[in-house]
Predict the structure.
Amino acid sequence: MPFKQYAHCPKCGQNYFPEPGFYWGAMFISYIGSGFFSLGFVMMTHWVFDLGLGLSMVLLLIVVGLFFVWWFRFSRSVYFHLVTKYQPKVTEAIDSGNVTKSIPKIVSGS
């Protein structure tokens, strides 16, 4: 269930899948972010805490394994917010009851 997401926003109705392959950009954000994090983490554990390189790598694998799903969702969220625009008037209309949106279905994150 961690890779499932709504088809559209339950609040404003924004489509979370505007086109096929939309989240390929999130893959690049994830790759760049995780690469820099990994370099920084290993350098910090190796040089600052004076741990061996092997132990630093094992700790990195543990941390990456624990935060994999969070990072996956975070990179999708960052990419989505980079390419879509928040529309406060739509949200205000929904809050006032002038517009209603259907309850979104949960779809696969692929």
